[in-house]
Amino acid sequence: MGQPFGMTFDFEKATAELDVLRGFIDFVNNQVGVYMDCLSGFEGNQVRIHRQVARVQRRTGQRIENGQPVMMYASIEDPTMPDVIHHRIIRANDFISVNAERGFNEQQICWSIIAFMFAFWDEQVRPQIARIRGVEPGKVAVDALGDLRLIRNSIIHNKGIISAPDHEKLKKMKELVIAGERVSLSHDQMHKLFVLIKQAIGAIILEYTGHLPGAPNPSEIVGVAIQSGGPSRKA
Fold first, then answer.
1. Angle 97-46-40 from CA coordinates, rounded to 5°
2. Which of 33, 92, 163, 177 has the fewest CB atoms found within 10 Å of its own CB?
3. pTM for this predicted structure
4. Which of 94, 100, 114 is nearest to 28 (CA)?
């Protein structure tokens, strides 16, 4: 006996959605890689300038040289060239601070990734899923991605401060931010955010199969991968 039409139709939708979600998974994983690489770069900057400042201050033991603060000069050109133009001049202490853990640079990367992930979901993935399901994009809703929207809006429209009403609306990410305060995520909190996004993708994947025996619980997902289909090979 053949499968009922409804089951076949749902299978076709699920298969079509997997192609869309595969791209979303790759995108999120790329953001994880960018985030980790940036943290390594910031740490390297901090260590390098700490060492340079220590050499300059060795005799005085103070953060000054000839009565002046130690300065940091940066250029995208070869610093040995006589006509080099420095695009950044900053106090060494300030440079160390902005590259520190949870410093300005790390938070800028966190904010950028949050805004970028939501934009990709809202403008690319969500409309495609909606077309496959034959519904309006607003009908495709997942709690974690709704939370991402609220945090993104706070970053873009409220100087990074999440209001008490928006904080109250959060369903999955409430513990990551504090009402009335600026969004400032630690490494562990950013990792939790990535996991919640992957769980949201898992929930979308399980839209048609989550009720079946043996289906995983989306809340237990920490990573998502979709294997590319292909012709089976004979033994």
1. 115
2. 33
3. 0.76
4. 114
